[in-house]
């Protein structure tokens, strides 16, 4: 039996951004939700270090929230300290006997740099049993056309490692990745337990189909990037992050997995530990149905009714203050839309200016007009609404015109396809950003 803990997407240094009261959890050190993630991370590192007969820990990426695509700030000091403390606890309690294997995600990396916060801000070399795989290792493996794997012959376990890589961004990358990935094909009946550890998701085209499928016959595939704990197939698992980060994620569970793999049958026994259950604060979406007959004071009454539940004698408490999102649905006229925005801004200001009364960390809102709900897919339709009548054709004639001017000989169809793909990706990203 081989026992593995799978953990992922810790996002140390994550802070709630929009509509948040300006209060510290620890003065001049960390913000409320940020501190909660550190505390929980340290608890989990302690708990897993005490598991009997544990053989390996795999962490599937996004240890730090920053830097990321839009922020080149390094992880903040408390995030670095939490991580180092977590490693110290883990390696001390396990007498440095249990390997901690990490593949890099899309968060916590300096884009385009060869070094990462693990090197610049954490002295990784201090941790001899931390096995750290970054994008650079992957690129080197691709360049040399060799596998990226880690062997533990004494235990008959072999890990195949897949740090995050946007291989679909350019065709040359995609082809190179397609070719390289055959190196990651385990040898049939080689006597090993073969495990893939990857950061990526089929949902945003960042997980290669050979990892996502059963093509390679891995005995177990540990995945990171999606924040909900879920089983994708017989042996593909996302452990998720430790807590929900945004309002989309409150309907999922988060936690970590304790996986036993039978050496002979290769059957998995997966125990799920749900850490989101430890969340002490309210984190919820409140539904308000608006209609044209309501007076503004009717509407305000509905909102205040919801907020009443968060009035507390003790006032603001960083550990349990609520994160709230109001969803306004129903028939929302333009005038009503305006009223709601103004009203909510005022209500939020009022709540946040009375921290001795309201125990609220965050208030945001979204106004969904009924008529919008029929078109919320990211299809050519949405591009059409915002930009062009017939995006494919118009884009093609634009490209062809430009190329004729330049007297170039590119493949117009191919270029148009690439352009359309870029547009769709951009729109997908915009939609995603809005939700955080
Ligand atoms: Mn990620």
What would your notes on this structure say?
- With 436 residues, the chain is α/β, with parallel strands linked by helices.
- It folds into 3 domains: 277 residues, Metallo-dependent phosphatases (Purple Acid Phosphatase, chain A, domain 2, 4-Layer Sandwich); 91 residues, no CATH class; 59 residues, no CATH class.
- It is 33% helix and 20% strand.
- The chain has 11 helices and 15 strands.
- It has a 6-stranded mixed beta sheet.
- The longest helix is centred in the C-terminal third of the chain and has 24 residues.
- The radius of gyration is 25 Å and the shape is globular.
- The two termini are 41 Å apart.
- The protein binds manganese (II) ion.
Q: How are the SSEs placed, and which strands pair?
A:
Blueprint: E1 2-7, H1 32-49, E2 56-59, H2 77-93, E3 100-103, H3 117-120, E4 130-133, H4 135-144, E5 149-152, E6 157-162, H5 171-180, E7 193-199, H6 209-212, E8 220-224, E9 230-233, E10 236-238, E11 255-261, E12 268-274, E13 283-290, H7 296-308, E14 322-330, H8 334-352, E15 360-367, H9 380-386, H10 391-406, H11 412-435
Parallel strand pairs: 1-2, 2-3, 3-4, 6-7, 7-8, 8-10, 13-14, 14-15
Antiparallel strand pairs: 1-11, 5-6, 9-10, 11-12
Helix pairs in contact: 1-2, 10-11
Bound molecules: manganese (II) ion.
Residues 62, 105-107, 199, 225 line the site of manganese (II) ion.
